[in-house]
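The data are passed on as follows:
___
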Amino acid sequence: MISIRSFSDRESAFDLAGLMQEYASTLDSARAREAIVQQIADLPQPFVPPEGALFVGYLNRLPAGMVAIKSTADPASCEMKRLSVSPQARGLGLGRELVLTAIASAGDLGYRSMKLATFPDMSAARLPVS
Protein backbone atom coordinates (compact mmCIF):
# COMPACT_ATOMS: atom_id res chain seq x y z
CA MET A 1 0.00 0.00 0.00
CA ILE A 2 1.31 3.44 -0.98
CA SER A 3 0.86 6.49 1.21
CA ILE A 4 2.32 9.99 1.10
CA ARG A 5 2.85 12.15 4.17
CA SER A 6 3.81 15.76 4.44
CA PHE A 7 7.02 16.37 6.34
CA SER A 8 5.63 17.46 9.68
CA ASP A 9 6.81 15.38 12.59
CA ARG A 10 9.81 13.69 14.19
CA GLU A 11 9.06 10.35 12.56
CA SER A 12 8.94 11.79 9.05
CA ALA A 13 12.14 13.78 9.80
CA PHE A 14 13.95 10.56 10.72
CA ASP A 15 12.55 8.77 7.65
CA LEU A 16 13.46 11.66 5.37
CA ALA A 17 17.04 11.88 6.64
CA GLY A 18 17.51 8.19 5.85
CA LEU A 19 16.04 8.61 2.37
CA MET A 20 18.25 11.64 1.67
CA GLN A 21 21.35 9.70 2.76
CA GLU A 22 20.32 6.85 0.44
CA TYR A 23 19.80 9.38 -2.38
CA ALA A 24 23.19 11.02 -1.74
CA SER A 25 24.95 7.66 -1.94
CA THR A 26 23.72 7.25 -5.54
CA LEU A 27 25.27 10.52 -6.76
CA ASP A 28 28.56 10.47 -8.66
CA SER A 29 29.56 13.99 -7.66
CA ALA A 30 31.21 14.56 -4.27
CA ARG A 31 29.99 18.16 -4.44
CA ALA A 32 26.40 17.02 -4.90
CA ARG A 33 26.71 14.56 -1.99
CA GLU A 34 28.04 17.35 0.23
CA ALA A 35 25.08 19.55 -0.74
CA ILE A 36 22.67 16.79 0.30
CA VAL A 37 24.44 16.33 3.65
CA GLN A 38 24.07 20.07 4.26
CA GLN A 39 20.38 19.94 3.32
CA ILE A 40 19.84 17.14 5.84
CA ALA A 41 21.35 19.38 8.51
CA ASP A 42 19.11 22.28 7.46
CA LEU A 43 15.81 20.36 7.24
CA PRO A 44 13.06 21.35 6.78
CA GLN A 45 14.49 24.52 5.18
CA PRO A 46 14.15 25.52 2.33
CA PHE A 47 11.13 23.28 1.73
CA VAL A 48 8.56 24.84 4.04
CA PRO A 49 5.25 26.58 3.32
CA PRO A 50 4.35 29.02 2.00
CA GLU A 51 7.30 28.79 -0.42
CA GLY A 52 7.72 25.02 -0.51
CA ALA A 53 6.71 21.59 0.70
CA LEU A 54 8.32 18.27 1.49
CA PHE A 55 6.78 14.81 1.26
CA VAL A 56 7.78 11.30 2.29
CA GLY A 57 6.38 8.32 0.41
CA TYR A 58 5.71 5.03 2.15
CA LEU A 59 5.27 1.55 0.75
CA ASN A 60 3.61 -0.81 3.21
CA ARG A 61 4.35 1.72 5.97
CA LEU A 62 8.09 1.77 5.26
CA PRO A 63 9.78 4.97 3.99
CA ALA A 64 10.54 4.44 0.31
CA GLY A 65 10.58 7.81 -1.47
CA MET A 66 10.60 11.56 -1.22
CA VAL A 67 9.96 14.74 -3.16
CA ALA A 68 10.19 18.44 -2.38
CA ILE A 69 9.19 21.70 -3.97
CA LYS A 70 10.77 25.08 -3.38
CA SER A 71 10.41 28.59 -4.65
CA THR A 72 12.47 30.08 -7.46
CA ALA A 73 13.33 33.66 -8.37
CA ASP A 74 10.09 33.73 -10.38
CA PRO A 75 7.22 34.00 -7.86
CA ALA A 76 4.88 32.10 -10.21
CA SER A 77 7.26 29.15 -10.55
CA CYS A 78 8.67 26.49 -8.25
CA GLU A 79 11.22 23.72 -8.64
CA MET A 80 10.73 20.04 -7.93
CA LYS A 81 13.67 18.77 -5.89
CA ARG A 82 14.94 15.51 -4.43
CA LEU A 83 12.52 13.19 -6.21
CA SER A 84 13.78 9.76 -5.29
CA VAL A 85 12.33 6.27 -4.89
CA SER A 86 14.23 3.46 -3.18
CA PRO A 87 15.26 0.67 -5.57
CA GLN A 88 12.99 -1.90 -3.90
CA ALA A 89 9.95 0.36 -4.44
CA ARG A 90 10.53 1.26 -8.09
CA GLY A 91 7.96 0.25 -10.66
CA LEU A 92 5.11 0.17 -8.14
CA GLY A 93 3.66 3.65 -8.69
CA LEU A 94 5.24 5.46 -5.73
CA GLY A 95 7.22 7.87 -7.92
CA ARG A 96 4.07 8.78 -9.84
CA GLU A 97 2.17 9.44 -6.60
CA LEU A 98 5.02 11.59 -5.28
CA VAL A 99 5.06 13.66 -8.48
CA LEU A 100 1.26 14.08 -8.47
CA THR A 101 1.39 15.14 -4.81
CA ALA A 102 4.13 17.68 -5.55
CA ILE A 103 2.20 19.12 -8.51
CA ALA A 104 -1.02 19.42 -6.48
CA SER A 105 0.84 21.04 -3.59
CA ALA A 106 2.49 23.52 -5.96
CA GLY A 107 -0.93 24.52 -7.26
CA ASP A 108 -2.24 24.88 -3.71
CA LEU A 109 0.70 27.19 -2.94
CA GLY A 110 -0.18 29.35 -5.95
CA TYR A 111 2.55 28.31 -8.37
CA ARG A 112 1.61 28.22 -12.06
CA SER A 113 4.64 26.33 -13.35
CA MET A 114 7.19 23.84 -12.07
CA LYS A 115 10.77 23.19 -13.15
CA LEU A 116 12.88 20.10 -12.70
CA ALA A 117 16.67 20.23 -12.72
CA THR A 118 18.70 17.03 -12.82
CA PHE A 119 22.34 16.05 -12.65
CA PRO A 120 23.86 15.03 -16.02
CA ASP A 121 24.16 11.38 -14.96
CA MET A 122 20.43 11.09 -14.17
CA SER A 123 19.31 10.06 -17.64
CA ALA A 124 16.16 8.33 -16.32
CA ALA A 125 14.95 11.65 -14.90
CA ARG A 126 15.34 13.63 -18.11
CA LEU A 127 13.10 13.88 -21.13
CA PRO A 128 14.70 13.58 -24.56
CA VAL A 129 15.54 16.91 -26.17
CA SER A 130 14.15 17.30 -29.68
DSSP finds three helices and five strands in the chain.
